[in-house]
Protein 1
Amino acid sequence: MKSLILFKNNLRYYDNPALYYGSFSSKVLTAYIYDEVNTDKKIGGASKYWLYKSLKSLNKSLNNNLLLYKGDTIKIVENLIKKHSINNVYIEEPFLKQDIEIYDKLQNILKKLEVSLIPYNCNLLWNPNSIYKNDLTPYKVFTPFYKKGCLLNQKQPDKPLGPPQLLNFIEIKNQTNIDDLNLISNHPWHKKLSNYWDISEDTALEMLADFIKTKAYDYKNGRDYPYLNKNSRLSPYIRFGLISVNRIWWELDKIKQDKNIAHYKSELGWREFSYYLLYHFPTIQYENLQKKFDGFKWENSKSKFNSWKTGNTGYPIVDAGMRELWETGYIQNRVRMVVASFLVKNLSIDWRIGEKWFWDCLVDADYASNVASWQWVAGTGADAAPYFRIFNPMLQGIKFDPKGEYTLKFLPELKDVPIKFLQNPWESNIELDYPEPIIDYKNSRERALSKYSNLRKLS
């Protein structure tokens, strides 16, 4: 019995159901296909860099037996089946619209070839097709989805499987090369990411262990303070499947449960909810879930957007966040909400423009979470933030970075500003090499409230 094990978004050796169960075949091939043919949303530059490193990590675990291809998944799989007389294809169960379309096409072709297509859920704690309200409609609010739909009505997530039992590879000469995938851009900004991230499956497991040992019981409150480094920073490893959410869930279950552990689990639940929404409402990748926003008048100033993305708005906590993104491919979660709110509500720039920028720059740019989170901040999505919730960047900076440690790390030009003026340096009367605010915050807030309030009255 010969099997092809196909990797996609779960690039790990341990706790990978498709790899684990496929390994029981007498002979196997393992392959990854970088497919830009069957998608209209190609992964961004930072993600390509992470993908490159992740594939290297996986290939090392597979003793250089990972076949690497670029092109049409359907054609490449069909060719591999015919060339190597494959009987079974093990694949990650798809939950995104275009992945489902690829799966359906594969299934049709494999039926004709009398080859079995065997899917396993490698990506989520719970299958989104098993969770519904009592009236059999999908949830649109996170809390009942998570507490009732998942925790109450679903069985515990599957336990992690460990490594594959045995891998007997079909004896072929691997002539594929990762560099042929063209994942590394000529743009030099990617090179600095290696200063901040060690990208491997081993590192992901070590980071989880360190988080549980040193940070987990400070998580609920500590996660809001960017200078404290209480976040797990596992999101990019989860995004590319270097560690499974099942393993994280069960490792957390082994320790004493308190509000911090429950809160971290709820963050995993938000990721589940994001995929759940995209599964049941696939158009939200590009469209407002709440249709009343389709007529919302975004201003979409190119100059203001450029100031935002380069960290030159004149609002220090916003600029620090955007410069952290450009420097490291990551933004701390509290600051991530602040910069997103500033873009859509204070600058009146369409959430899709911000989502696209994050998609290209974040190392943890996740298909579902990126869209769901931007729609949440903008008020256009499910379980959206109230229209009147507009983050005040000065107050956010003062409260969550009281000594300016985070702000000054990314805005060293403000080092001479007294701490009481750090988040409003234009009031310090110090000559600075730093921009004046591109908007008046109070006026922008009132304008946003008026626009959102009018929209609410019309709905």
Protein 2
Amino acid sequence: MEVLGELQITDSTKIVLSKGEFRNNPRIDFRTYFKKDGEYIATKKGINFHEEWTDEFLKLVEKLK
């Protein structure tokens, strides 16, 4: 996975936006990470969707403004 950006939530928690592939399908992933023993570890909390849905996802996010 290629990390595209991070949003620090607390001293020990962040959200990571990444792009990669799963079973030969391009995927976008938003995942919560927490710090344990000085290293960030991915949690099950997050979303993952096919890259072709990016435009629709951005339209949803625009509604937050």
Protein 3
Amino acid sequence: MLKYSVEKLPLDVRLELAQKHKSLRKQKGLSQQDLAERSGVSLGSLKRFETQGQISLESLLKLVFVLGRLSDFERVLEPEKNLKQIEKLFNS
């Protein structure tokens, strides 16, 4: 893995997601304990995520579901649209 890069590294993205999640949780007025209970994710897993950015995908999806942001993940890994194919339709 590249040590220096212009693009973000997986660690950077993990930590940013954790920070955004923590901010959203607080904005919704939920304590870590409240969110853990509502989502079924252990309090330890939630704390580890918010401090280190480490969490399973299943647990992350449960957390964002409770926060009302699960639909954000529907766009992840969506295939890129081929604009040249679309342009051909309009040019013919």
